[in-house]
Design brief:
The complex is a heterodimer. Chain A is an alpha+beta fold. Chain A has four helices and nine strands. In chain A, the strands form two sheets. Chain A has a six-stranded antiparallel β-sheet. Classes of the chains: A alpha+beta, B alpha+beta.
């Protein structure tokens, strides 16, 4: 599995042509308690850079943009009843959607683990 | 370093690990490491300590003996002040000539000064305090003088607040709701009010600035007490349906539209005699075209301030003025103004959140029960 991040703290974990999308552990810490996550439905198609989800913390709503494009094959239904799952493990149990990637080259230009670590350390 | 004003508790907030934000020109703690949800729940279950020193405190004193300060101040607010006994306080509204709300405030009748002059203690909102005080001084010029008290103000709120506070000041256990006491505590002159803005029992305590941090540390040394930021203060007051000035009430809303009729005394409804009374009394008699209501969404998506409200027929009927997640309620809660024909409890409406109509209903407030102190019979 390959892990990539955006500068805006979305992640994409790629395995074959399936990508798991969510917001990073760092983003989760910054957001504070998550109270609602709005996710797309299975079958929805979006492109790299599209807004595909909204995460609401006690403070505000934040749009989440797709680091890669594709068609949604699975959504994390646990977030519907327990949005705080994002706080429990943003990069594990708190994933948002799994998509079938349309274009493997979408990951080009994204940050790898080291580069993202340096980015959030700034 | 920011240019924002700092309260006497600024260093303590930093020491406690607060995340600071600008609020009404002050650098204030929005949350501590416990987080907004945890702080909210802690206040509902234990006791929370809030810094509200940014609010304005002042004493209004009559300029000469024989000036009835209550009668005088009734010319600015619609509350019943004549019947207010010494040490008793009242929530009221500073009114504009247009019948709208300049600010909401707490008014306490305190003892006459050493020259026998009548006095009121006022607590007003941070964002309005300069304008409020200028307004009061201008309107009452020659009849009363205003002395601004530069003191810290903290609120201890929650079901364990009285338990904790009575360990410091035993008499506070049975201090009446909406009353104020002047207390000497270990040489610190405290002004203790049994009131608050969370829906819970508790106290607001005015403390000299140089004693505030040590006093708060003493309160925080009790296991039941945690420091609470503005984030939780907002969700706590919203859950019990209390208005936030500048959002739910302002100079475009009247007390009748804001459903604050209870803040207008019966005698005042008949006699008027406050700014904008002609407009307000007419609204009481003839009704208003819009009203502040509680709103509960069916789903879990919070509808924030400025969310547009639509009728089921698809017409815009109003706007959300406060909205968010209610941690104790366990779901999104909100309030806002709707056209009067949609203000009935249980009326079905739609909230337009991110371009999607989300079903909701007009609901009674408070969303969670209030838990104020009642003296034993």
């Amino acid at each position: 599995m390959s892990k990539y991040y955006t500068e805006d703290h979305e992640y994409v974990f790629v395995k074959g042509d399936i990508a798991t999308l969510g917001v990073s552990e760092h983003a989760q810490e910054q957001l504070g308690d998550v109270v609602f996550v709005e996710l797309p439905e299975v079958g929805v198609t979006f492109e790299k850079g599209d807004e595909f989800a909204v995460v609401e913390s006690v403070k505000a709503a934040s749009e989440v943009y797709a680091p890669v494009g594709g068609v949604v094959v699975e959504v994390n239904s646990a977030l519907e009843d327990a949005p705080a799952t994002v706080n429990e493990g943003a990069e594990s149990v708190g994933w948002f959607v799994k998509i079938k990637m349309a274009n493997p080259s979408d990951v080009e230009g994204l940050l790898n683990v080291e580069a993202y670590g340096a980015h959030i350390a700034d | 370093m920011s240019d924002y004003l700092k309260t006497a508790l600024y260093d303590l907030h930093i020491e406690l690990g607060a995340k600071m934000v600008e609020f009404a020109g002050y650098d204030m703690p929005v949350q501590y490491p416990l987080g907004v949800l945890g702080e909210h729940s802690h206040t509902r279950e234990n006791a929370g300590l809030f810094d509200v020193s940014h609010m304005g405190q002042a004493i209004l004193t009559a300029t000469e003996q024989g000036v009835n300060i209550a009668e005088l101040f009734e010319t600015l607010v619609p509350g019943l002040l004549l019947s207010l006994k010494e040490g008793r306080m009242r929530y009221s509204l500073l009114m504009s000539e247009e019948g709208t709300i300049l600010d909401d405030l707490m008014i306490t009748r305190i003892s006459n000064d050493e020259n026998g002059l009548e006095r009121l203690f006022l607590v007003v909102n941070a964002g309005c305090k300069d304008a409020d005080f200028a307004h009061i001084e201008a309107k009452l010029a020659g009849k009363a003088t205003l002395e601004i008290k530069d003191r810290a103000l903290v609120a201890l709120q929650g079901p364990k607040a009285a338990d904790v506070f009575s360990r410091l000041i035993p008499t506070s256990a049975t201090q009446a709701f909406m009353s104020m006491e002047f207390v000497d505590y270990k040489g610190i002159d405290l002004i203790v009010s049994r009131c608050g803005y969370t829906g819970e029992d508790g106290f607001e305590i005015s403390v000299p600035n140089d004693k505030a941090a040590a006093f708060c540390k003493e309160l925080l040394s009790h296991d039941e007490v945690e420091a609470i930021g503005l984030g939780a203060r907002d969700s706590l007051r919203l859950e019990v349906g209390l208005c936030l000035y500048g959002h739910d009430i302002d100079t475009t809303t009247t007390p009748v539209e804001a459903d604050l009729l209870w803040a207008i005394g019966k005698r005042r409804r008949e006699e008027g005699g406050f700014p904008g009374a002609d407009i307000v009394l007419k609204q009481i008699a003839e009704g208003v075209s819009r009203k502040r209501v509680g709103i509960l969404a069916e789903g879990r998506a919070p509808a924030r301030e400025h969310t547009e409200i639509f009728s089921k027929a698809g017409n815009k009927i109003g706007e959300v003025t406060s909205g968010g997640f209610g941690p104790t309620f366990g779901g999104p809660v909100g309030m806002g103004y709707v056209d009067i024909e949609f203000a009935e409890i249980d009326t079905e409406i739609d909230l337009m959140v991110r371009g999607k109509a989300r079903p909701a209903k007009i609901a009674a407030m408070p969303f969670v029960p209030q838990n104020y102190y009642r003296a034993p019979k």
